[in-house]
Amino acid sequence: MNRRVAITGVGCICGLGNDLPAVWAEAAAGRSAIRPIENVDQTRLIAKNAAEVRGFDPETRFDPKLLGALDRVSQFALVAAEEAMRGAGLAGETRIGEMAAVILGSGVGGMTTLDESFRKLYAENGVRVHPFTIPKLMINAPACQITMRYGITGPAYAVASACSSANHAIGTAFHMVRQGVVDLALTGGTEATITLGTLKGWEALRVMAPDTCRPFSAGRRGMVLGEGAGVFVLEPLDHAIARGATVLVELVGFGMSSDAGDLIAPSADGAARAIRGALRDGGLVPTDIDYINAHGTATPANDPTETKAIKAVFGDHAAKLAVSSTKSMHGHALGAAGALELAITIAAMRAGIVPPTANYLGPDPACDLDYVPNTARVQPVRAALSNSFAFGGLNAVIAVKQAPSARVVA
What we know:
410 residues, Peroxisomal Thiolase, Chain A, domain 1, two-stranded antiparallel sheet, 14 strands
């Protein structure tokens, strides 16, 4: 049994805003959320900028009894899940049951809790840490919190594949709904890594830009971290139509591959295989795709490699594609990156507006596609891809297309 799969709810929180309308408004305007870091002592940092979630007060969003058990990574996931469920018309559900799943991606889990615990032990010579340290920092904590919030007793687990975590989670949930394993899935990714320990670790890799994120651009100097969560409600298309839900887009394909090569250096061949897999799984041909939300990290190695992979798959059609990297605005949210990018892609398809690659200074000879530089473009998008290519050579690509009878809305 292969059922068509609808996305009926989207929730999003990141540096661009605390819900999807706010995030989309900033992305469509080409405004970057990359600014000086506020939550970490900058004097100890080389890379002093990030796309932090701002204006978010968890004490106004959560019961104090629950808040003590929630790392920031779980807080983001619950906020995004609430928005997604509300959009799907399921906000009041508290006992959904066993025919539903929660599959959530995260690269590293509760880093705020981990950093705080290490500070108490090593900097303050403490003898004990918070009693909920392990339940707060474990990578599956956000998925568990969502199951408890909505009474979901079916399959639930975390997916950790570095920067492809969200796309792997979404793709897995998609296949579960399509094959009839479950009738509903909450899926996506969440990450909260703007901590001193995490930032210093990324600095050590020497891939961090000292200023801002300029994907595919001349003068790019590396990636910039972001944080946040994106969560989606997936259900069979016929179920969604029968209950009168708004079908935002149809999720049609998922491709994945492993480079089996270098732990850090990307492979154009591996990326291309994942892209081809998403097209094949979705019954799509290259000319069906109008837009790609690229992995686009702005590192010297990644951007030319991704460009090469796109050209290998799409041939002459590659020159006609709109390709942008929204990491230029919301930063690289690691295990949540694919979820943020899919949320923006869905909003773009609904609005008929392709978001730009911000901070673009000019063409790089090795990156010669249409990257929608700096300014959004009014353009219908029939079908789109969202690319995620992770350290370890783990690649995951999602394919979505306009919902049946969909119309472009302002």
